[in-house]
Structure formats: C-alpha cells, structure tokens
Amino acid sequence: MAHTAAHGSTNNGKSSLGVLTLAALGVVFGDIGTSPLYAFKEAFTGAHGLPVSEANVLAVLSMMFWSVTLVVSLKYVSIVLRFDNGGEGGILALLALASRLTRANPRLAWTVATLGVFGAALFYGDAIITPAISVLSAVEGVSVVTPAFQHWVEPLTIGILIGLFAIQSHGTGAVGRLFGPVTVLWFLALALLGAVSIARTPEVIAALDPRYALAFALHSPGLTFLVLGAVFLAITGAEALYADMGHFGRTPIRLAWFGLVFPSLMINYFGQGALVLRDPQALKNPFYLLAPEGLLAPLVLLATAATVIASQATISGAFSVTQQAARLGYLPRVTTRHTSATERGQIYVPPVNWTMLVLVVLVVLGFKSSSAIASAYGIAVSGTMVLTTALIAIVALSLPKRANPLFLALLGLIGVIELLFFAANAIKFADGGWFPIACGLALFAVLTTWKRGGTVLAAHAAARRVPLARFADICDPRTPRVPGTAVYLSADPEAVPTVMLHNLKHNKVLHERIVFLTIADAELPRVPDAERTELRVLERGRIYQATLRYGFMEEPDVPEGLRLLRRHGLVIDPADCTFFLGKTTIAPAARRGLFTWRRTLFGWMQRNAPPAAESFKLLPDRVVELGTRVAV
Q1: Do 184 and 192 contact (CB within 8 A), yes or no?
Q2: How far apart are CA 23 and CA 252, in angstroms?
Q3: Mean pLDDT, the chain, as a whole number?
Q4: Domain 35-438 has what CATH class?
Q5: Which residues, in sequence order, are bridge partners of residue 88?
Q6: Helical H runs in 429-553?
C-alpha cells in the first residue's frame, strides 16, 4: 500500500536517553559482550591454535585490541551508524539508501542490490548461529563447576533458548529493560575479573602496542592467517549494532559502547592473557578460571544470563531486517507487531521468531558443542561486514558532496582487514562453515525470487495503468448499474485499480456507488480519527477516492475507517459493501527450464502470505477476489 506521512500529527515523544542506553545495553551488545567466553581460548585451543608463549599471547591480544578498535569502534560505532535510512539501520537500510543514490546508473544499482541482498541473507545465517554458540558456551561452564553435569548441557541449552524466544512477544524495549541491569552487571564483572588479573601481571598491557601484532604477522604470516579466524570472534556482533539502530538510535549505542562495553571487553581479554602468562594450564577455560573458586557458580549463572541476552541482539536484528525486506519488496507482507508507542523500530515478527527457534535448536543438536559451532561461526558475519563496507564506499562516492580522500583510504584499510578475516574464516568451510553459507544462499534465492516476481507483476500493471482522471472516459454510459457500494482496494491513489478493470471487462457491470480505497502508512504511532480520512469526489453520488491513514502501532480496520467517512458527507455501511481485491500470479512455465523452480517458489510464497482481507479486518462473505495470471 502507499506510504505517506500523516499531517498535523502530534509528537508522542521519545524515551529518555538513559532508558534507551540501558535498553540498548540489554539488547545490542549481548553478542559481542559474550565473546570473552570463547574468543581468546579459541586462538590457542582451536583447530589452528597457536602454541602458548609470551610472544604469541601478546600478539593475539594486540590483534584483538586493534581489530575491535578499527572494525567496531571506528567503522561501526563512529562511521556506519551515520549512514541510516530514516533512522533505520542494517544492511537493507543501507541498500535502500545506496539504491536511491545509484538509480541513474542501472549497472551500479544492480551491483548494489546484489551486494545488499546477499549481505542480508548472510546476516540471517549469523542470527541462527549466534544464540546457539552463545548459550552453549555459557552452559558448558556447568561442567567446569562439576563434570557430573556434562550430560545436562544440551537439554539446559535448549530449554533456555525456548524461554528466550518465548518472551520476544513482550517487545524489544521490555526485554531490554529486563536485560539491561543484568548486562551492566556482566560488563562490570568482566572488567573486575580482568583488572585483578592484570594487576598481578601488568606486563600484559604492552600488547596495546600494535607492533606486537605487526611483528608476529611479518615473522609468521601463515600462522597469523590461521589465527585470524579466532581473533575475529572478538568482533562478531558488530553488525548487530547497526541492524538494531532502529530500535534505540545511534546516540544510546555510542554512549553504551564507549562508556562501558569497549573498556570492559578489553580489560577482560587482557586479564585472560595475563592469567595464561602466569599459568599456561589455564587455557582449558581462561575466562572461568579468572574467578576465585567460590565465585565460579555465580559466574556461570551470570554468564548464562548474559549469553541469553547475547542472542537478543541478532534476534532483534532479524526482526528489523525482515521488516525492511518486506518494505523493499524482497519478502511478502509479514505479520508484524509494534511493541512500543514511542520507538517505531521496536517490533516483533512471530513467523521469524518461531522459525529461528526451530533452526537454532537444530544447530545445537547437530553441532553439540560451542567449539564445533565456532568452526561454523565467522564466515557469515565477516561476509556481511565486507559487503557493508563496500556499500558504505558506494554511498560515500555517490553523495553530491565529494568524499574525503582520508575517509576513503581509512575505509579501504578496514575493507582489507575484513577481507583477510573472511579468507581466514573461509578455510573452516568443511568444518561447519558450510552451514551459514547454505542458509545465506537459500535466503538469497528467496529474497531475489520474490523481488523478481514483484518486478514482473509491477511491470505488467504499469503497462495497463489507467490514470484515475481517465476513468470516466473508459466507462460506457450504457454499462448496467447494480445496486450497492463497491470498494476497490488500490495501492496507487492516482490510478484505476486493476481489479476494477477486470471486473468491468468480465462482468460488464458497475455498482451504483464506487469507492477506490488506499491504505496509507503514517510515520507516527497512532493517527487520531479526525485525521485518519481523506476523500476526493470524482463524480458526486457515484465515484469517490478515499484514503485511510494508520500509524505504525495500529492495525488497519477498513470497516471502521469507512464509517469515519461520514464526516466528509459519505455514509457507508461496510456490512452492505462488496470489497474487491486483486491477486495477480505468474503462470507456470510452458516447459520446464533451469529456473522453473523460481516460479514455483514465488507461487508458494504468494499462497502463504497473510491474506489482505484478514489484515484489513474485512468480513469474508463481503470480499470478492479476482485473480489474474501473467504469462512471462
């Protein structure tokens, strides 16, 4: 349906900065905030782990510090958050922005669309793996407390994940306020544990010098490349910062990152490094062994809570990406519930929520341990990061204002680092890395198939578009008029609905009174009834064009909206109307070919999309749906 802003709307106000910052801590930073559970350990104990030595520990810490500084602090928090699309973040929001700027260059626009959609598809792969690895890595701490609980790790993990997905319907803001204080406690615990360890071995601070990382890379380039896959685990979750921007805004995210998250993470990583320098045997679980034995059980509980929260970042991001994909025409209309009257980006998408739960549980059952999932983790995230950097560069070069050469050089440096991370993660393809790539490719096929099908149908409709002003010309005065009111739903308020033309062509009758109706989205939570309706008289007593506006917290109620037209002098009884809806499908291929499956997939998606009559609360026995098949 058409999108428009309502006029004369009132501002309901935003949540306070403090509340949003706390909620952002509880939602946005969980993923990257729980990386200390496994990232440092994986550099030495993973499939391509390094031997333990002082030089290697300092080199890994140096690589981690500068990777987080360049990719997260500089790229995402300082640069990427500036490239929003109407307050929304994420790679699809960036795609929409880049598409507008490259419209005049079809080849570049096609490249932008391909990069953006594939990046979004990879993000879904990350969103499935993150809850599995995060919760598993924490629950595995139970076996550190007592090995007798080892066989309970998987059942506990699945139970926690079911609980997490079950509370999503309460909304991101409510979940964030619930999780926010726990996350604050988690980051303070990270900093405290790390600081105590650093105080005992202060020489570990030398790893802040980037020369340790550079010297290691020059001396052992092969080992450096292999260990980058583990170092990358320290920055996973950065893409979620951008995807969740629409939930909270850029300022709360920046405040939380620089004020608490970044320093806490670095202090803990360096604390783990200090512990390993003192006792190389601590590598079996350097995070938990930072804690005194008496605090181990409470730390496991806190870590479990924190990893549940970690999963929230990608779940919320998946909701945002799904909504953006539907708005951009890459997915059919989805059932979306807005859970905040002040923050438009806080949404809940039930089909995505439950589908993700099933897939996440399957990942836990299939991989069984966080170390096994770590092999699959990283390819999707690093791929999305590279594509985001490429789109940022295209946007910067396409803006009317000339891009700063220093900015482009910096972006190029970050892009090279991310490409190295992607290559390092790609070698884990056979060890499980195939899973997020397979998910990404499957979703890429779904997204592009729906977009292609929509483009074909839109081109078919455009070729037959009749401007509303010409409606009287195409109506034969001798056409019989039948009693009653006909309401034709139309996405374009300036064109005669296609369903109207089909009805006239096949049934050769018109109703005594005709209303062309457009449902419009308003950029505010709720629209007052006095401002909801707009009416144009095309032929008094016979033909009207009406628009009903609804805020993003409202569900369109067409029968009630039609009753409000009384204030314009048009009295309509919805129970006595006939509502005409159009549905255009693509005809099956005359003969099977290489891409026949795309027609089948598009048809299946059309059949399973929520019916428009249900979305608009129309009485089923008052609806007539006319279908058209397009042969292409």
Answers
A1: no
A2: 9
A3: 83
A4: mainly alpha
A5: 85
A6: 434-463, 471-474, 498-507, 529-532
